[in-house]
Write a structure and sequence with these properties.
Strand content of chain A: 25-35%
Structural class of chain B: alpha+beta
Largest sheet of chain A: 5 strands, mixed, barrel
Radius of gyration of chain A: 20 Å
Oligomer: heterodimer
Order of helices and strands of chain B: HEHEEEEHHH
Helix content of chain B: 40-55%
Number of helices of chain B: 5
Number of strands of chain A: 6
Number of strands of chain B: 5
Shape of chain A: globular
Strand order of the largest sheet of chain A: 2-3-4-6-5
Helix content of chain A: 25-40%
Structural class of chain A: alpha+beta
Strand content of chain B: 15-25%
Largest sheet of chain B: 5 strands, antiparallel
Shape of chain B: elongated
Protein backbone atom coordinates (compact mmCIF):
# COMPACT_ATOMS: atom_id res chain seq x y z
CA UNK A 1 0.00 0.00 0.00
CA UNK A 2 2.84 2.33 0.98
CA UNK A 3 4.75 1.50 -2.23
CA UNK A 4 1.63 2.06 -4.34
CA UNK A 5 1.06 5.43 -2.71
CA UNK A 6 4.70 6.47 -3.23
CA UNK A 7 4.50 5.43 -6.89
CA UNK A 8 1.36 7.51 -7.32
CA UNK A 9 3.04 10.59 -5.87
CA UNK A 10 6.17 10.02 -8.01
CA UNK A 11 3.94 9.70 -11.10
CA UNK A 12 2.15 12.96 -10.28
CA UNK A 13 5.48 14.75 -9.78
CA UNK A 14 6.76 13.40 -13.13
CA UNK A 15 3.61 14.53 -14.95
CA UNK A 16 3.94 17.98 -13.36
CA UNK A 17 7.64 18.30 -14.28
CA UNK A 18 7.03 17.16 -17.86
CA UNK A 19 4.20 19.63 -18.21
CA UNK A 20 6.25 22.53 -16.84
CA UNK A 21 9.26 21.61 -18.98
CA UNK A 22 7.01 21.69 -22.03
CA UNK A 23 5.68 25.07 -20.96
CA UNK A 24 9.17 26.57 -20.81
CA UNK A 25 10.04 25.35 -24.32
CA UNK A 26 6.71 26.35 -25.86
CA UNK A 27 6.76 29.26 -28.25
CA UNK A 28 3.62 28.31 -30.13
CA UNK A 29 0.29 29.64 -28.93
CA UNK A 30 -3.11 28.24 -29.78
CA UNK A 31 -3.77 26.27 -32.96
CA UNK A 32 -0.94 25.27 -35.30
CA UNK A 33 -0.23 27.62 -38.19
CA UNK A 34 -1.63 26.34 -41.47
CA UNK A 35 -0.92 28.96 -44.14
CA UNK A 36 2.29 28.88 -46.14
CA UNK A 37 2.24 32.49 -47.33
CA UNK A 38 2.35 35.60 -45.18
CA UNK A 39 0.41 38.73 -46.07
CA UNK A 40 2.08 42.11 -45.49
CA UNK A 41 0.23 43.97 -42.73
CA UNK A 42 0.47 47.13 -44.82
CA UNK A 43 -1.63 45.45 -47.56
CA UNK A 44 -4.37 44.63 -45.03
CA UNK A 45 -4.36 48.17 -43.62
CA UNK A 46 -4.32 49.72 -47.11
CA UNK A 47 -7.37 47.82 -48.37
CA UNK A 48 -9.07 46.15 -45.38
CA UNK A 49 -12.31 45.43 -47.25
CA UNK A 50 -10.40 43.18 -49.67
CA UNK A 51 -9.30 41.02 -46.73
CA UNK A 52 -12.44 41.14 -44.60
CA UNK A 53 -13.40 37.63 -43.46
CA UNK A 54 -10.29 36.10 -45.01
CA UNK A 55 -7.77 33.98 -43.15
CA UNK A 56 -4.29 35.50 -43.24
CA UNK A 57 -0.88 34.88 -41.79
CA UNK A 58 1.07 37.97 -40.78
CA UNK A 59 4.57 38.50 -39.53
CA UNK A 60 6.07 41.32 -37.53
CA UNK A 61 7.43 42.68 -34.31
CA UNK A 62 5.22 42.48 -31.23
CA UNK A 63 5.04 46.06 -30.00
CA UNK A 64 2.30 45.81 -27.39
CA UNK A 65 0.67 43.10 -25.27
CA UNK A 66 -2.59 43.28 -23.32
CA UNK A 67 -1.34 43.82 -19.76
CA UNK A 68 -4.52 42.64 -18.07
CA UNK A 69 -5.21 39.32 -19.75
CA UNK A 70 -2.62 38.82 -22.49
CA UNK A 71 -5.58 38.52 -24.86
CA UNK A 72 -4.21 40.66 -27.68
CA UNK A 73 -0.96 41.79 -29.15
CA UNK A 74 -0.13 44.58 -31.55
CA UNK A 75 2.07 43.55 -34.44
CA UNK A 76 4.15 46.15 -36.26
CA UNK A 77 3.55 46.55 -39.96
CA UNK A 78 6.21 46.30 -42.64
CA UNK A 79 5.68 50.05 -43.18
CA UNK A 80 6.52 52.80 -40.65
CA UNK A 81 4.04 53.99 -38.00
CA UNK A 82 1.60 51.13 -38.63
CA UNK A 83 0.51 48.17 -36.54
CA UNK A 84 -2.44 45.80 -36.34
CA UNK A 85 -4.19 44.30 -33.34
CA UNK A 86 -4.19 40.51 -33.16
CA UNK A 87 -7.04 39.56 -30.82
CA UNK A 88 -7.41 36.10 -29.35
CA UNK A 89 -10.14 34.52 -27.27
CA UNK A 90 -9.76 35.29 -23.56
CA UNK A 91 -8.17 32.43 -21.68
CA UNK A 92 -7.55 30.30 -24.78
CA UNK A 93 -4.29 32.05 -25.60
CA UNK A 94 -2.44 34.23 -23.09
CA UNK A 95 0.50 36.21 -24.44
CA UNK A 96 3.15 37.04 -21.86
CA UNK A 97 4.23 40.66 -21.44
CA UNK A 98 7.80 39.71 -22.28
CA UNK A 99 6.66 38.90 -25.83
CA UNK A 100 7.13 42.61 -26.54
CA UNK A 101 10.06 43.14 -28.87
CA UNK A 102 9.92 39.58 -30.22
CA UNK A 103 8.84 38.50 -33.71
CA UNK A 104 5.41 36.96 -34.21
CA UNK A 105 4.08 34.81 -36.98
CA UNK A 106 0.35 34.85 -36.44
CA UNK A 107 -2.76 33.54 -38.13
CA UNK A 108 -6.40 34.53 -38.01
CA UNK A 109 -9.35 36.09 -39.79
CA UNK A 110 -9.43 39.77 -40.70
CA UNK A 111 -12.25 41.69 -39.08
CA UNK A 112 -13.31 45.15 -40.26
CA UNK A 113 -15.88 47.11 -38.30
CA UNK A 114 -17.10 50.65 -38.64
CA UNK A 115 -17.46 51.96 -35.11
CA UNK A 116 -19.49 55.01 -34.13
CA UNK A 117 -17.63 57.53 -32.00
CA UNK A 118 -19.32 56.13 -28.87
CA UNK A 119 -18.33 52.56 -29.78
CA UNK A 120 -14.79 53.69 -30.60
CA UNK A 121 -14.52 55.48 -27.22
CA UNK A 122 -15.83 52.39 -25.41
CA UNK A 123 -13.32 50.15 -27.21
CA UNK A 124 -10.42 52.52 -26.63
CA UNK A 125 -11.40 52.79 -22.95
CA UNK A 126 -11.41 48.99 -22.63
CA UNK A 127 -8.01 48.80 -24.32
CA UNK A 128 -6.66 51.50 -22.01
CA UNK A 129 -7.93 49.45 -19.05
CA UNK A 130 -6.19 46.37 -20.42
CA UNK A 131 -3.02 48.40 -21.00
CA UNK A 132 -3.17 49.79 -17.47
CA UNK A 133 -3.39 53.37 -18.79
CA UNK A 134 -7.04 54.11 -17.98
CA UNK A 135 -6.14 57.02 -15.68
CA UNK A 136 -4.52 58.97 -18.53
CA UNK A 137 -7.17 58.01 -21.10
CA UNK A 138 -8.42 61.05 -23.03
CA UNK A 139 -11.60 60.37 -25.00
CA UNK A 140 -11.54 63.80 -26.67
CA UNK A 141 -8.76 62.46 -28.93
CA UNK A 142 -11.39 60.30 -30.66
CA UNK A 143 -13.26 62.77 -32.80
CA UNK A 144 -15.48 60.69 -35.06
CA UNK A 145 -16.36 57.22 -36.36
CA UNK A 146 -13.45 54.80 -36.62
CA UNK A 147 -12.79 51.85 -38.91
CA UNK A 148 -11.51 49.13 -36.61
CA UNK A 149 -9.28 46.60 -38.35
CA UNK A 150 -8.03 43.61 -36.43
CA UNK A 151 -7.16 39.97 -36.86
CA UNK A 152 -9.24 37.55 -34.85
CA UNK A 153 -6.44 35.15 -34.17
CA UNK A 154 -6.31 31.50 -33.17
CA UNK A 155 -2.64 30.62 -33.50
CA UNK A 156 0.76 32.29 -33.26
CA UNK A 157 4.44 31.50 -33.06
CA UNK A 158 6.57 33.90 -31.06
CA UNK A 159 10.29 33.87 -31.89
CA UNK B 1 -5.26 -8.30 5.66
CA UNK B 2 -8.20 -9.58 7.75
CA UNK B 3 -11.56 -9.84 5.98
CA UNK B 4 -13.96 -6.97 6.65
CA UNK B 5 -17.20 -8.45 8.06
CA UNK B 6 -18.78 -5.10 8.90
CA UNK B 7 -22.13 -4.06 7.39
CA UNK B 8 -22.06 -2.65 3.81
CA UNK B 9 -23.00 0.91 4.92
CA UNK B 10 -20.09 0.88 7.41
CA UNK B 11 -17.74 -0.39 4.71
CA UNK B 12 -18.61 2.36 2.18
CA UNK B 13 -18.33 5.01 4.88
CA UNK B 14 -14.83 3.74 5.73
CA UNK B 15 -13.90 3.91 2.04
CA UNK B 16 -15.43 7.34 1.73
CA UNK B 17 -13.45 8.65 4.72
CA UNK B 18 -10.24 7.03 3.43
CA UNK B 19 -10.77 8.58 -0.01
CA UNK B 20 -11.52 11.98 1.54
CA UNK B 21 -8.38 11.78 3.67
CA UNK B 22 -5.98 10.66 0.92
CA UNK B 23 -7.36 12.87 -1.85
CA UNK B 24 -7.27 15.73 0.67
CA UNK B 25 -3.56 15.18 1.26
CA UNK B 26 -2.85 14.91 -2.47
CA UNK B 27 -4.88 18.01 -3.32
CA UNK B 28 -3.44 20.34 -0.67
CA UNK B 29 -0.68 21.77 -2.90
CA UNK B 30 -2.87 22.48 -5.90
CA UNK B 31 -5.78 23.73 -3.80
CA UNK B 32 -3.53 26.31 -2.15
CA UNK B 33 -1.96 27.30 -5.49
CA UNK B 34 -5.34 27.65 -7.22
CA UNK B 35 -6.93 29.48 -4.28
CA UNK B 36 -4.08 31.99 -3.92
CA UNK B 37 -4.06 32.52 -7.69
CA UNK B 38 -7.87 32.88 -7.61
CA UNK B 39 -7.61 35.70 -5.08
CA UNK B 40 -4.89 37.38 -7.16
CA UNK B 41 -6.69 37.05 -10.52
CA UNK B 42 -10.07 38.10 -9.08
CA UNK B 43 -8.70 41.59 -8.45
CA UNK B 44 -6.81 42.06 -11.70
CA UNK B 45 -8.83 45.20 -12.35
CA UNK B 46 -6.91 46.76 -9.44
CA UNK B 47 -3.46 45.30 -9.96
CA UNK B 48 -1.44 43.12 -12.30
CA UNK B 49 -1.35 39.65 -10.70
CA UNK B 50 1.43 38.43 -13.01
CA UNK B 51 3.92 41.28 -13.27
CA UNK B 52 5.41 43.99 -11.14
CA UNK B 53 5.44 46.98 -13.48
CA UNK B 54 7.42 50.05 -12.56
CA UNK B 55 7.73 53.28 -14.52
CA UNK B 56 10.66 55.65 -14.34
CA UNK B 57 10.55 59.06 -16.00
CA UNK B 58 13.74 60.69 -17.25
CA UNK B 59 14.80 63.03 -20.06
CA UNK B 60 17.15 63.02 -23.01
CA UNK B 61 17.97 65.78 -25.47
CA UNK B 62 15.01 66.41 -27.79
CA UNK B 63 15.31 64.89 -31.26
CA UNK B 64 14.16 66.67 -34.37
CA UNK B 65 13.69 64.78 -37.62
CA UNK B 66 13.46 61.07 -38.21
CA UNK B 67 14.54 58.45 -35.67
CA UNK B 68 17.56 57.06 -37.51
CA UNK B 69 19.73 54.24 -36.11
CA UNK B 70 22.05 57.04 -34.94
CA UNK B 71 19.22 58.45 -32.81
CA UNK B 72 18.66 55.03 -31.23
CA UNK B 73 22.32 54.67 -30.25
CA UNK B 74 22.37 58.28 -29.03
CA UNK B 75 19.35 57.65 -26.77
CA UNK B 76 20.94 54.41 -25.55
CA UNK B 77 24.15 56.29 -24.72
CA UNK B 78 22.34 59.17 -22.97
CA UNK B 79 20.32 56.78 -20.84
CA UNK B 80 23.35 54.54 -20.20
CA UNK B 81 21.28 51.51 -21.19
CA UNK B 82 22.77 48.01 -21.35
CA UNK B 83 23.80 47.87 -25.00
CA UNK B 84 21.65 48.02 -28.11
CA UNK B 85 17.96 47.12 -27.80
CA UNK B 86 16.84 43.77 -29.21
CA UNK B 87 14.36 45.69 -31.39
CA UNK B 88 12.74 49.10 -31.80
CA UNK B 89 9.50 50.55 -33.16
CA UNK B 90 7.93 53.89 -33.93
CA UNK B 91 4.15 53.88 -33.40
CA UNK B 92 4.13 57.43 -34.79
CA UNK B 93 6.65 60.00 -35.97
CA UNK B 94 7.07 61.45 -32.46
CA UNK B 95 7.50 58.26 -30.46
CA UNK B 96 10.32 55.75 -30.34
CA UNK B 97 10.09 52.48 -28.44
CA UNK B 98 13.17 50.44 -27.55
CA UNK B 99 12.66 46.85 -26.46
CA UNK B 100 14.99 45.20 -23.96
CA UNK B 101 14.52 42.02 -21.95
CA UNK B 102 12.11 43.00 -19.19
CA UNK B 103 12.15 46.66 -20.16
CA UNK B 104 10.57 48.96 -22.75
CA UNK B 105 11.87 52.49 -23.23
CA UNK B 106 9.32 54.97 -24.62
CA UNK B 107 10.87 58.18 -25.96
CA UNK B 108 8.83 61.23 -26.92
CA UNK B 109 11.29 62.54 -29.50
CA UNK B 110 10.25 66.24 -29.78
CA UNK B 111 10.33 66.81 -26.00
CA UNK B 112 12.94 64.23 -25.00
CA UNK B 113 10.65 62.85 -22.28
CA UNK B 114 11.41 59.20 -21.58
CA UNK B 115 9.43 56.56 -19.75
CA UNK B 116 11.33 53.40 -18.84
CA UNK B 117 8.84 50.65 -18.12
CA UNK B 118 10.28 47.68 -16.25
CA UNK B 119 8.37 44.42 -16.09
CA UNK B 120 9.30 41.71 -13.64
CA UNK B 121 7.18 38.56 -13.26
CA UNK B 122 5.86 38.11 -9.71
CA UNK B 123 7.81 35.06 -8.56
CA UNK B 124 5.70 32.06 -7.53
CA UNK B 125 2.44 33.99 -8.10
CA UNK B 126 3.18 34.19 -11.85
CA UNK B 127 3.76 30.42 -11.94
CA UNK B 128 0.61 29.77 -9.85
CA UNK B 129 -1.46 31.92 -12.20
CA UNK B 130 -0.05 30.14 -15.24
CA UNK B 131 -1.00 26.77 -13.79
CA UNK B 132 -4.39 27.99 -12.58
CA UNK B 133 -5.29 29.41 -16.00
CA UNK B 134 -3.80 26.39 -17.79
CA UNK B 135 -1.13 28.42 -19.52
CA UNK B 136 1.10 25.39 -20.24
CA UNK B 137 -1.77 23.43 -21.90
CA UNK B 138 -0.30 20.03 -22.99
CA UNK B 139 -0.10 17.50 -20.12
CA UNK B 140 -1.11 20.11 -17.57
CA UNK B 141 -4.66 20.00 -18.99
CA UNK B 142 -4.92 16.40 -17.75
CA UNK B 143 -3.38 17.23 -14.37
CA UNK B 144 -5.94 20.05 -14.00
CA UNK B 145 -8.75 17.68 -15.06
CA UNK B 146 -7.61 15.16 -12.46
CA UNK B 147 -7.55 17.91 -9.85
CA UNK B 148 -11.10 18.96 -10.79
CA UNK B 149 -12.27 15.34 -10.41
CA UNK B 150 -10.41 15.16 -7.08
CA UNK B 151 -12.30 18.25 -5.88
CA UNK B 152 -15.62 16.67 -6.90
CA UNK B 153 -14.71 13.52 -4.97
CA UNK B 154 -13.56 15.58 -1.99
CA UNK B 155 -16.84 17.48 -1.85
CA UNK B 156 -18.99 14.34 -2.15
CA UNK B 157 -16.99 12.22 0.31
CA UNK B 158 -16.81 15.21 2.67
CA UNK B 159 -20.59 15.07 3.05
CA UNK B 160 -20.36 11.65 4.70
CA UNK B 161 -17.36 11.99 7.01
CA UNK B 162 -19.52 12.54 10.10
CA UNK B 163 -22.66 10.74 11.19
CA UNK B 164 -25.53 11.91 13.33
CA UNK B 165 -26.26 15.37 14.70
CA UNK B 166 -23.19 17.00 13.13
CA UNK B 167 -23.40 15.05 9.85
CA UNK B 168 -25.32 15.53 6.63
CA UNK B 169 -28.63 14.71 8.33
CA UNK B 170 -28.10 17.50 10.90
CA UNK B 171 -25.93 20.58 11.09
CA UNK B 172 -23.88 19.46 8.07
CA UNK B 173 -27.04 19.41 5.95
CA UNK B 174 -27.88 23.02 6.84
CA UNK B 175 -24.35 24.17 6.09
CA UNK B 176 -24.40 22.28 2.77
CA UNK B 177 -27.69 23.96 1.84
CA UNK B 178 -26.23 27.38 2.71
CA UNK B 179 -23.21 26.62 0.52
CA UNK B 180 -25.44 25.69 -2.41
CA UNK B 181 -27.55 28.79 -1.84
CA UNK B 182 -24.61 31.19 -2.33
CA UNK B 183 -24.03 30.43 -6.06
CA UNK B 184 -27.79 30.06 -6.61
CA UNK B 185 -28.49 33.55 -5.25
CA UNK B 186 -25.54 34.94 -7.26
CA UNK B 187 -27.00 33.36 -10.39
CA UNK B 188 -30.37 35.00 -9.75
CA UNK B 189 -28.81 38.36 -8.97
CA UNK B 190 -26.16 38.67 -11.65
CA UNK B 191 -26.52 36.10 -14.38
CA UNK B 192 -30.18 35.67 -15.25
Amino acid sequence: MRIARSSLIALAVCALSASLAGAQAAKDYGKPLTLKVTTPISSILKDPKAFEGKRVQVEGLIVEVCEERGCWIKIASDKPFESIRFKVEDGVITFPLDARGKKALAEGVVSVKLLTREQAVAQAKEMAKERGTLKSFDETKITGPVTDIQIMGDGARVK
Amino acid sequence: MPADHSAPHVRWRRWSIALHRDIGYLAVGLTLAYAISGLAVNHRGDWNPNYRISKEFVRVAPVTGAATPGVVSDVVAQLKLDGAPKSSFQPDAQTLQLFYKGKVVHVDLPTGKVMIERTVPRRVLYEMNQLHLNGPKQAWTYVADAFAIALILLSITGLFVLKGRLGITGRGGWLTAAGVLIPTVAWFLYLR
